[in-house]
Specification:
3 strands, 9% strand, globular, disordered C terminus
């Protein structure tokens, strides 16, 4: 059977846009990532967050005060995007920015005491998102999916300049900052 006829009879390939038929897994990952972000956005809206802001807060809760430039590198977003996110989080009282006492040109960003309630909301939202995302998968399937996604992440990271590395590095240490 030729590759063309296999693609025509394979329901996964025939449902893909023609240009994506060479990458059905990549197409599926893109769709899943988009839907996951939408679901996360709906859950985080109740906490007053926009999608992506929770990653900044997770980093700050786990790492404590960090330079804004380090935060930008850790979340691997455009500096202007991070600045806008931080402005919104600062306006809502969840973060504080101040000059770095060791380098007055640098800015330190830290989670405020007021963000502790947000920590609880984010933790709950991510728990709910996890259950919704993995509904119907048993414990072994969940472990296998996690293992496979870690391999995919490692593959992509080797091809990405300045890759922040495994997600454990992105979110700093093992627990929340004291007090939250």
């Amino acid at each position: 059977m030729s590759a063309t006829s296999a693609a025509q009879t394979d329901p996964v390939c025939s449902e893909l846009p023609r240009a994506a038929r060479g990458g059905p897994v990549s197409h599926a990952l893109s769709r899943v990532a988009r839907l996951h972000r939408i679901a996360a956005g709906k859950l985080l809206k109740g906490a007053g967050l926009y999608p992506g802001q929770e990653f900044l807060m997770m980093r700050l809760w786990d790492a404590g005060p960090v330079r804004q430039s380090e935060l930008i590198r850790a979340v691997d977003l455009d500096p202007s995007t991070v600045t806008k996110m931080l402005q919104r989080l600062e306006q809502t009282g969840h973060v504080r920015r101040s000059p770095d006492p060791d380098d007055r040109r640098a800015v330190l960003v830290e989670a405020t005491d007021n963000s502790c309630a947000l920590f609880t909301d984010v933790k709950a939202a991510w728990g709910e998102l996890e259950e919704h995302t993995l509904a119907g998968l048993d414990a072994d399937e969940r472990r296998e999916l996690t293992r496979l996604l870690a391999k995919v992440e490692a593959n992509l990271c080797t091809e990405t300049e300045g890759c922040p590395g495994p997600s454990a590095e992105l979110h700093g240490g093992p627990g929340a900052q004291p007090g939250c």
